[in-house]
Amino acid sequence: MNDKEQVSLGRRQLLKGGAAMAVAGLGSSVALSANAACVPQADAKFDEVVDVIVVGSGFAGMSAALQARENGSSVMIIDKMPVFGGNSTINGGAMAVAGSPLQKKEGIEDSVDVMVADMLEAGRGMNDVEMLKLVCNGTSESCDWLINHGVEWKPFVQHFGGHSIPRVLQTVQSSGAGIIRPLIKVAKKNGIEMRNQAKLEGFIKDENGRVIGIDVRQGYYFPKERTGKMIKIGARKGVIMATGGFGNDIEYRQMQQPEYTNQLDSTNHPGATSEALKQMMLLGANPIHLDQIQLGPWASPDEKGFGTASQFNTIATYPSGIVVDVRTGERFFNELADRKARADAIMTRRDDQGNPVYPIGFTNAEGAKDAQTLDWGLKYNVIKKADTLEELAKIYNMPAKALIAQVERWNESVTNGNDSEFGRPMQKAMLLDKGPWYGVRMWPKVHYCMGGVRVNTASEVLHLVTNKPIPGLYAAGEATGGIHGASRLGACAVAEGVVTGRNAGRHCAENQAVTLKLA
Amino acid sequence: MLKVLSTICMLMLIAIPNANAMKIKDYHQEIMTGDNGKVECSACHGDAKRKTIPEASACESCHGSVEDIAEQTKRPAGAGHDVEPNPHDSLHYGTDLPCTYCHMEHKESKVYCNQCHEFEYPDMKR
């Protein structure tokens, strides 16, 4: 026997021993989801019991779990996906904060009222004002809370579209992972049970209609519906739904917006689907604004999902460059308008057959200096570099003369501090006077669901008929509806997730505990 | 006659999943074949029924912990954008992603990150 064979044999023996540990649960083939939500189980026996169950592990879920734990409850987080963080760990990690120390450092005056006014304007007045105020009022304190939990912000404040002033902080990683990963670390340290591949299949209620637990498919392998095995987990104080939106549930989103077909890409992770929302509705939750689905106006058709361009456009093109129609070389909208206005404007660019004519956003090296995804975008050919405007025009087949004339008009506006063409806020506008230039093709993608279940300021889910709280059921973050009205402003989902998540965690932890039996 | 035919059909039905299960990656061929020359399903699946997706601990018994794996595919210090990110210790997911979402034994492996990204991992055995 040679050495290699000996190694192999040894390894295999080891493997055989190890395999005993790997016994996975038998897959249950019973799907409960269609009716389990409404079955009261007076004498339910549970496989496990905790004080607070949090469903979902994004900004809202992690914040809710940590806050409930800090308020003395035992907490379990479940997530149906193989990984934690949902959309929160794959986004730009930008948070709008009213009255941050960084704003003060830059001499920017801000207040909760101004932030509320900005969000109401973008929301076209459809917002749930009480919840909106709760979010804006909590941003400053929650920003400190995040810092105390290991989040690091870039040392400058940014101006995102639709905000009247710069108030956006962003993690040094340029990703929500810069919030989610530190929160997971603290959660594990603080004894929060974190379980991936665990999918909510239905709610368990007691004889009084209070939610006391959930049916969970444990060992679930997304998206294979029959994997894993069913268990019951009890929640003495309540269940917090931090289950996000349904931006990647093409069938359900098309029921709300028939034009949002599979031809429209999404920035969302594949698990951003509607089944948790539907389970809440089966319990009597009141769905609000489900047809208000946001398109991200900074995405590129030349890559999948959020990609490299979304970040590049958010931090570079929109505040420091311009966007032009490829056929005319001319601007056609205010690049710092809210997301709805920008996405609507871009989607008017079509040919005679209705096919997209992708506009070009561009800035120069100075405008792109903070864009961490620039090099990745260049590598994957999503962002293109040109030394001169003539060259940029050539790359994208634009009329060079008209493009150069447009840049000159823009520079006059910057010098005058007034965008006479489209009324763009000019606080951070800069002269586009020298190359090299960086350009990107643009087309919106499905990004965020403004709609969701209706909650009160204690984050309790309200019943459709009585408008009273469904006992034991809380919701936070994108899973809730109404806070943003018709259009969410950029960086306000992190604000919403963290503030409402903590609010839900605090209130759920204060709820009177019921006694539950283990099986 | 009918009985014979249906028995043959039954046998074929039973034989097909077995034939699939036999299809394993060449680099695992030697280590996962038992002394009788047959693939040892239990090596990964334990006592669980066929088609149950193995847990990461099955992989770890040979390949080491997720931290060991992450160390093996670490990017060199100061690596630029021409070096792809470490797939086993990601910015977004750390070391949380179970092995089986990328590495498939009975079909072609895929890169979970590439639901959004375009990473090239030429050394990954598909």
Automatic annotation (TrEMBL), chain B:
InterPro entries: Multihaem_cyt_sf, Tetrahaem_cytochrome. GO terms for cellular component: periplasmic space. This is Cytochrome c3 family protein. It comes from Shewanella fidelis. It is found in: Periplasm. Residues 1-21 form the signal peptide. Its main location: periplasm. Keywords: Electron transport, Heme, Iron, Metal-binding, Periplasm, Signal, Transport. Coiled coil: none annotated. Pfam families: Cytochrom_c3_2. GO terms for molecular function: metal ion binding. It comes from the Bacteria. Residues 38-118 form the Tetrahaem cytochrome domain. Its cofactor is heme c. The keyword Hydrolase does not apply.
